[in-house]
Amino acid sequence: MFIYPNPVFTTVTILFDPVLNDAELTIYDLFGQKVKEISHFSGSALTFDRGSLVGSIYFVQITQGNKVIATGKLVITDQY
Question: Domain spans of the chain?
């Protein structure tokens, strides 16, 4: 999994290898609280807007078929 840009100001793209099918992305804050979830996506890349996520460090988890495929760290900044 490759996350760019990181740190993120507005939009982030996550690349996957191998290609995923019906996967789920979950983002957790530093306290382990689920703050964003994107379900039922497929392909080798996912691009999304930070939405209401405030500037902080987050943890990303990708699952497919109840199996953790990848984990990573995402930094969101409020300054460009």
Answer: 2-76
For 49-73, letters b (16+ CB in 10 Å) and e give ebeebeeeebebbbbbeeeebbeee
Query: Which amino acid is present at 3?
Result: I
Q: Which residues pair with 14 in a beta bridge?
A: 3, 46
What topology is assigned to 2-76 in CATH?
Answer: Immunoglobulin-like (2.60.40)
> What is the residue whose two structure tokens read 């902080």?
56
- pLDDT tens digits for range 3-29: 999 999 999 999 988 899 999 999 999
